[in-house]
Amino acid sequence: MSVIYLLLTLSILVAIVFFIAFIYSVKKGQYDDSYTPSVRMLFDDELVKVNQEKLTKD
Amino acid sequence: MKSTQCYHCGDSCDDDLIKFDEKIFCCNGCKTVYEIFSENDLTCYYNFQDNPGAIPSEIQGKYDFLDNEEIVQKLLEFSDGNTQIVTLYIPHIHCSSCIWVLENLHKLNSKISSSQVNFPKKTVRVTYNSTTTSLKEIVLLLSSIGYEPYISLEDYEAGKKVVDRSLTYKLGVAGFAFGNVMFLSFPEYFEVSEFWLEQYKNIFRWLMFFFSLPVVFYAGKDYFVSAYKGLRSKILNIDVPIALGISVLFIRSSIEIIFDLGTGFFDSLTGLVFFLLLGKFFQQKTYNFLSFERDYKSYFPIAVTKISSEGKEENIQIYDVDKGDRLLIRNQELIPVDGILINGNAEIDYSFVTGEANPIHKKSGDKLFAGGKQLSGVIEMEVLSSVSQSYLTQLWSNDVFQKDNKSHFKTITDNISKNFTIAVLLIAFFSTAYWLFFDASKALNVFTAVLIIACPCAIALAAPFTLGNMLRIFGKQKFYLKNATVIEQLAKIDTLIFDKTGTLTTNKESTINYEGVPLNQQEKSILKSTLRASNHPLSRTLYHTFNAVETVAIVQYNEVVGKGISANYEENTLKLGAASFVKNNNEKATLDTAVHISYNDEYKGKFIFKNAYRKGVKTLFSSLKKTYNLSVVSGDNEGEKKYLQENLPVETNLLFNQKPEDKLNVVAKLQRDNKKVAMIGDGLNDAGALAQSDVGIALSENINVFSPACDGILDAEKFNKIGTYIKASKKAIKIIKYAFLLSLCYNVIGLYFAVTGQLMPVVAAILMPLSSISIVVFTTVSTNFLGNKIK
């Protein structure tokens, strides 16, 4: 067996894994709302900062 | 200065400030929301955005219908024993603060397990424990913090909505296959004739074949379906040559690899489908927070309070309302059916229906029409006709709302594709005939090559990219269109019809004229002081017109809801309000909204409220009159005829006293004379005309509130830009035509290779993406240039 068969199989398998991940994410609705997550990911940091401010005030 | 702005809602609050926690609030409602937030450690709500909030509105009893289990079940998205999920539409969602606070709802009510905001759609999806809390509690909680959800009859009827994601899947499949096939074709492109590559070439080719299968049979499926439908109705649409191209590409490539004749064109095939889908995807610009398909159902509540014969109040579903029932309409509730007012003070706001902002006063025994909103206190009414039989809702039984009269529009691409397809087929047959005569072995090769290279990928991309980009540009300019076809229709418009009230006029400002005996300084100051104490909308408006007047301390202030106010200052009595209240018997009946004044029981005069015309109406009309036929169609009486005749161009056709059906017929009549009509309206009474017209544009003061079914929604502040937008649409069509020319050049080059029998896979693989990409670049750049000009 030539190594090329192995390489081809592997590369296509990797590609298919990513493809399945894509299908899965579309199905989960990740592409339905592309705006809110971009805002949401910034929240945690802000929260911590505000709490600290409050603590120093008290 | 920030100091005069309410910390919560940002309204300017000059009159009565409420100070709390070193912050300034305009009213108790705002203060209460702040208190709720500060008690629950949610004050960082105010850190993301200045003054993000809204004043919570009165909702006393409004959501009692959510006690009705049957109605609740219809609204829920998911429900099992303990957990329920509901998605609520909240028009106020507008900034990151909103997202933050709504996703922290569980801090306000521990029974809520999670909540997730979809910002573009302005919805929040709440998951909660149904054994310890209820939908009603959640709705009340949201309302109390200024995020009142909007629940309408439409939510009741709509089943579970299925999101159509097939285009995303198809695009994914095509892109995946395109990328892989490209990699697999690389050895062939460079004609590496090394021994080991020769040996494995079949493996590569068969892999490409398998990658192309889902592209042809899944991703490209729509083109075959559309071409078949087109042919069946004898239309050569653009999908016919595309489907032809795809099938020829696939069949010839398969044959080539089966008989080991060559590599085939799998790279071009997958690339073609990928680019075409990309165009489709780009054109599909949707404004999730807007709906263009609304009818009265999205305005109407789900349930009303019925008073049974024993005097008990119960919530019943709107469709169950029968003639003769007695209904209780609370403050701020919508009247769902036609009926007769039995008792209570009715101040009905018909702005949903007519665009007229000032409320109309009704006496008991008067007829009430569906669609009005009660503004002061509780009223009782007796039902005259059921929901679907009411004056307003009957409009929707008109044929216009049943059939989709716009699907027959022939797009610019369809127009060119007919000639294009015929030309391509002719070239294919002639060149085949030529080669049959000279070198029969090449004939089939040439025939397929012509069909492959002439596949109008670039032509099919020109319109989606131009129009898709125009949609985005218009969207940024606050002109929201339903889909790309509307731009093409807009470019063909030659007649414009405007509604008057709410469209040419604005309900944000009113002009106030005083008729009667002039008031002296003291009378003015008493009047102003009295107005200051009143919360009636007319009083508020009138109050702001007395700027340079001192206020005095009045005594014995007495407001009779729905009638008027009386107040004393020193020895003087002031009365203002409805004509009957002020005891003005010699008043002739007029249709104007007016506030009457009497001073020590002596009638002084009246303030007449009129909606002010929008700025720029005159300039807009005079700039439009050269190119378009103009009409103003109004449901009002002829009171303003003279004013309009003086201020609008003489060519303008003025029609008054038009019922909703009449408006529709005016449009239909013009269309029979082969006019392309655009209707610009705002209220539900324009809904028929908007649906009948070629392009129906709904004007909206606030795009978050509701506008009737239409093709486009225009923000009212951009009203005077209508002319510019139509012109821009015409230019967009010109851009598409230039793009057609450009892509024809590519086709001619490609055809040269095809006809002479020299089409190599690598030529097709270069030419196809090159033409597609250059069309995309050309259309995008030129539409952006156009977009900059219309700013």
For this structure, the CATH topology of the domain at 477-506 and 615-729 in chain B is Rossmann fold
Please identify which CATH superfamily of the domain at 477-506 and 615-729 in chain B we are dealing with. Answer: HAD superfamily/HAD-like
* Rounded mean pLDDT score of chain B: 81
- The top-level CATH class of the domain at 477-506 and 615-729 in chain B is Alpha Beta
Number of strands of chain A: 0
Structural class of chain A: mainly alpha
Largest interface: A-B, 25 and 25 residues
Share of residues in helices of chain B: 40-55%
- Give a count of the beta strands of chain B, DSSP E runs of length 2 or more: 28
Low-confidence stretches of chain B: none
Could you give the topology of this structure?
The complex is a heterodimer of chains A (58) and B (791).
Chain A (H helix, E strand, L loop, with lengths): L2 H25 L8 H5 L2 H15 L1
Chain B lengths: L17 E3 L2 E3 L2 H12 L5 H4 L20 H7 L2 E2 L3 E7 L6 H8 L8 E7 L4 E7 L5 H10 L8 H5 L8 H24 L5 H25 L1 H12 L6 H20 L7 H18 L19 E5 L5 E5 L8 E4 L9 E5 L2 E4 L10 E3 L4 E2 L4 E2 L4 E5 L28 H27 L1 H14 L3 H20 L2 E3 L3 H7 L3 E5 H5 E12 L4 H13 L3 H7 L11 E6 L3 E6 L2 E6 L1 H4 L10 E7 L2 E12 L3 H8 L4 E5 L7 H7 L5 E3 L4 H13 L4 E5 L5 H6 L2 E6 L11 E4 L6 H34 L5 H29 L2
Parallel strand pairs in B: 17-24, 17-26, 24-25, 26-27, 27-28
Antiparallel strand pairs in B: 1-2, 3-4, 4-6, 5-6, 7-8, 7-9, 9-15, 10-13, 10-15, 11-12, 11-14, 16-28, 18-23, 19-20, 20-21, 21-22, 22-23
Helix pairs in contact in B: 7-8, 7-11, 8-10, 8-11, 9-10, 10-11, 10-13, 11-14, 11-25, 12-13, 13-24, 14-24, 14-25, 15-24, 17-18, 24-25
Protein name (chain A): Cbb3-type cytochrome oxidase assembly protein CcoS
Pfam families (chain A): FixS
Keywords (chain A): Membrane, Transmembrane, Transmembrane helix
